[in-house]
Structures are given as structure tokens and as C-alpha cells.
Amino acid sequence: MVKKGAKKVKEIQVKVFDNDLEKAMRILKKKIQNDGLFKRLKLKKSYEKPSEHKRRKQREAIRRQRIAASRSKASR
Fold first, then answer.
1. For the segment 25-76, what is each residue's pLDDT rounded down to a tens digit?
2. I want to staple 28 with a disulfide (CB 3.0 to 4.6 A). Which of 4, 14, 17, 22 is the partner?
3. Using CA atoms in the order 53, 59, 60, 63, what is the torsion angle rounded to 10 degrees?
4. What sections of 21-49 are H helices per DSSP?
5. Element holding 20 (H helix, E strand)
6. pTM over cut 0.70
7. Residue 25 in domain
8. Cα separations (Å) of 76 from 12, 63, 65, 66, 68?
9. Rounded to whole angstroms, how far apart are CA atoms 59 and 63?
10. Do 55 and 74 fall within a single domain?
């Protein structure tokens, strides 16, 4: 039974070649960072007031808009 609103867990895998564990760890860390897992864990660590949550979401939206605008200028 799946809970309502539950998110599907994304499986992250890294293959280790020639016992190069250091390289595999770097790759894993990068994949986790790109997935946003570190950020989600940091946010879950402590309570975030609803007003802070709203403010953070607005800042993230503005940041995404700036990035999109700079990318569209660069592609011209």
C-alpha cells in the first residue's frame, strides 16, 4: 500500500571499476548533490516555519527565473 502523497524513491547506483573506490565516492557524491538529496535532508533536519517556507520557495523561484533568463540571453 502506497501512502497518499508519497514520493517514489529514485535509485542511485555507482559502479566501481578496478577497485577505484575514491572515484566511485566522488561520482556518488555528485549524483546525490545533483538529485538534491543533501538539500532535502538539511531542510528536514529542523522545523521550518510556514512563513520561512514561503519565503524560501519565492527566493528559489526568483533564482530559477534569473538562471532561465541568463540562459535565454546566452543562446541568442
1. 999 999 999 988 888 888 889 999 999 999 999 999 999 999 999 988 887 7
2. 14
3. 180
4. 21-35, 37-45
5. none
6. no
7. yes
8. 36, 20, 17, 16, 13
9. 6
10. yes
* CA separation for the pair 50, 74 (Å, rounded): 36
Check whether residue 13 and residue 41 sit in a common domain: yes
Amino acid symbol at 74: A
Q: Which of 23, 28, 25, 26 is nearest to 13 (CA)?
A: 28
Q: Are 34 and 18 a contacting pair, CB within 8 Å?
A: no
Helix (H) or strand (E) holding 9: none
Q: Can you tell me the distance from the alpha carbon of 23 to that of 37, in angstroms, rounded to the nearest whole number?
A: 20
Q: Which of 25, 31, 26 is nearest to 12 (CA)?
A: 31
